[in-house]
Design a protein that fits this description.
The complex is a heterodimer. In chain A, 73% of the residues lie in helices and 1% in strands. Chain A is mostly helical. A two-stranded antiparallel ribbon of chain A has the order 1-2. In chain A, a hairpin with a 4-residue loop joins strand 1 and strand 2. The mean pLDDT of chain A is 86. By secondary structure, chain B is mainly alpha-helical. Chain B has a single domain, classed as MetI-like (MetI-like fold, Orthogonal Bundle). In chain B, helix 3 packs across helix 10. The chains are: A mainly alpha, B mainly alpha. At the A-B interface, helix 1, helix 6, helix 7, helix 8 and helix 12 of A face helix 4, helix 5, helix 9, helix 11 and helix 12 of B.
Chain lengths: 332, 291
């Protein structure tokens, strides 16, 4: 590994800067799209706000609410107000969770990051080991079992995996809690309790992300094993172990591992389902609650946040790819 | 002589491909069984999937109920077949929507070229930077859950890959001599597009559409599971898994397990068939990732 000082910091910083500039129009377009969809939909925030009282309220009161909520303004004005508010940290109020949107995100983001990081680490480690072993004995019994299981898991919905895991681990065996962040009735969240509660959702999320890693690592390392450099190493009489770990892994595994940044959309998709199944208090579960309650301010903010996460993941992936493969320039 | 650890003949060749004909036959058989069941069971079997039988409440799998019975005693095998029918219908319509949209956008971008192409591809990039399920959830939430919002939300989030494939195909076809020949022969723009470009693009678009159906079913079931999909009386597989949660707490695993298997097994069969199709389309390219 190169020393930190010899890394191409300059080109990397320039690429980051270019991407940050490009992200501005993308995020603007996404926020506008979100407002446009809401404007085109039959959803009326006033009726949602007033609830049953809206049926008996006078038109005057309804108009007053409409004015207070600011939804009597044209689409562009509302979008602009939201944008300027967002830049000062005011993202509006969440109706479904009864708190300012920024507070909801602040309270919940950490739990989602914890869950997703754990799941990602498990998926990468396990996926690498299984993928390398499958590539090593390509076409063999182990390879077929791993590949078959990977395809089946890829097709399996994460919420279904989560429910089966709850049935097996929490109900049948009783070894892990079924959901939530802490035991019910517990006044404070201790680290031990959280550690116990995070295991099952993180494992299920990891398993739902696993197939991609396994299949790509298998493909990358398998292709590398067929390269001339590996053939040369073998013909020099090097041990199979050396050939695999020092030659094939370096050229086959590194490019695959750099791609993990581009897996953010799938990770978010998985988190949406897994957090809901396990009542995990993260932002993905909040997204589903916001959607069920048609809570536009929260939903809009979380959609933009997810888009930003995807863009950051893509950037990270491209930076790592450039580092792993010196032939690739930082000009994207 | 010591045994060599390297067997070049075994790597990447016959064994790597596995038992291909067997896989193809199995996939075809499963697909045939699924289609027959979905199309024929409702008219041939005079049983009502909604028939409540409280005596059979949460019965485990038995000869009378091969998949067991749910929390109000409805036969799960029958309900799974009906659920797959709903899911498949929604999935096929959504996949068709996505494919038509993707083909139109991709063909337009590829055929026009220049700044129009760049603009269209930026829009594709824009759409792909929002996670599909999240955008789908947003659309369904704003337009209220229902059959059409689900189809539209899945269609609107899944046309991107088809657009990319079709655009690349059109771009590669545009440079071929037969297109030049048609143009110099005086064929109109429209004629070139319909008679020369479209037939070359259709097999790929068709393959993309077939592979899209399991994806669409996956998304529909995820939305339905979250309570943001089909209405409860359109009991799709996702809705079945959602309503099975209460049975799960009572110790019944079968109402959860079987609807999920009804998503996985047809998906694998479609992937198996599509893999064979892809190899016929392009024998040089190995069928790598099928899903």
């Amino acid at each position: 590994m190169r020393a930190l000082t010899s890394l191409p910091w300059g080109p990397m910083a320039r690429m980051t800067g270019r991407r940050a500039l490009l992200a501005v129009p993308v995020l603007l377009a996404v926020t506008f799209g979100v407002f446009a969809i809401a404007a085109a939909s039959p959803f009326d925030p006033v009726k949602a706000y007033a609830g049953a009282a809206g049926l008996t309220a006078s038109q005057e009161n309804l108009d007053q609410i409409r004015h207070n909520l600011g939804v009597d303004q044209p689409l562009l004005t509302r979008w602009w107000d939201w944008l300027t508010g967002a830049l000062t940290g005011d993202l509006g109020d969440s109706a479904s969770l009864r708190a300012p949107v920024s507070q909801v995100i602040g309270e919940r983001l950490g739990w989602s990051v914890l869950l997703c990081t754990l799941a990602f680490v498990v998926a990468v480690l396990l996926g690498t080991v299984l993928g390398v072993l499958a590539a090593r004995w390509r076409g063999g019994m182990f390879d077929r079992m791993v590949t078959g299981a990977a395809y089946a898991l890829e097709a399996a919905p994460p919420f279904w995996l989560g429910l089966l895991a709850i049935w097996l681990c929490a109900l049948k065996l009783g070894v892990l809690p079924a959901g939530g962040l802490t035991d019910t009735g517990s006044p404070t969240a201790t680290a031990g309790q959280i550690a116990g509660h995070v295991v099952l959702p993180a494992l299920v999320l990891a398993v739902s992300q696993l197939p991609w890693f396994v299949l790509y690592v298998r493909q990358g390392v398998g292709d590398a094993l067929a390269e001339d450099a590996v053939r040369g190493a073998r013909s020099r009489g090097l041990r199979e172990r050396t050939v695999l770990l020092q030659h094939a892994l370096r050229s086959g595994l590194l490019p695959v591992l750099t791609l993990i940044g581009s897996r953010v959309p799938e990770l978010i998709t998985g988190a949406l389902l897994v957090e809901t199944v396990f009542s995990w208090p993260g932002i993905a579960a909040a997204t589903v609650q916001a959607a069920t309650g048609v809570d536009f301010p929260l939903l809009a903010a979380l959609t933009v946040l997810a888009t930003a996460a995807v863009l950051i993941g893509n950037l990270l992936s491209d930076l790592l790819y450039g580092l792993a493969d010196p032939r690739v320039a930082f000009d994207g | 002589m010591a045994e060599l650890t390297w067997h070049p003949a075994r790597r990447g060749t016959a064994r790597d491909r596995g038992n291909r004909p067997l896989r193809l036959v199995a996939s075809a058989a499963i697909m045939a069984a699924v289609l027959l069941a979905v199309l024929l069971v409702p008219s041939l079997v005079p049983m009502d999937a909604q028939a409540v039988d409280l005596a059979a409440k949460l019965q485990p799998p038995s000869p009378a109920h091969p998949f067991g019975a749910d929390e109000v005693g409805r036969d799960l095998l029958l309900r799974c077949v009906y659920g797959l029918r709903v899911s498949l219908l929604v999935g096929v319509v959504a996949a068709l929507t996505a494919t038509v949209l993707g083909t139109a956008v991709g063909a337009l971008a590829g055929a026009l070229g220049g700044w129009a192409d760049r603009a269209v591809m930026r829009i594709v990039d824009l759409f792909s930077s929002v996670p599909h399920l999240l955008l789908g959830i947003f659309i369904v939430a704003m337009f209220r859950p229902g059959v059409w919002p689900v189809i539209i939300s899945v269609g609107l989030t899944h046309w991107l890959s088809t657009a990319r494939i079709v655009r690349a195909e059109v771009l590669s076809l545009r440079g071929r001599p037969f297109v030049d020949a048609a143009v110099s022969g005086g064929a109109s723009r429209w004629r070139v597009a319909v008679r020369h470009l479209l037939p070359g693009v259709l097999p790929r678009a068709g393959l993309a559409a077939v592979l899209m159906v399991p994806h669409a079913i996956w998304h529909e079931s995820a939305l339905s599971f979250l309570g943001l999909g089909l209405p409860a009386h359109e009991a799709s597989l996702g809705i079945m898994v959602n309503s099975a949660r209460s049975s799960l707490l009572a110790g019944g695993w079968w109402p959860t397990l079987f609807p999920g298997l009804f998503i996985i097994v047809p998906t694998l069969a479609v992937a198996g068939l599509a893999g064979a199709w892809r190899e016929r389309l392009d024998p040089r390219r190995r069928s790598e990732l099928m899903l």
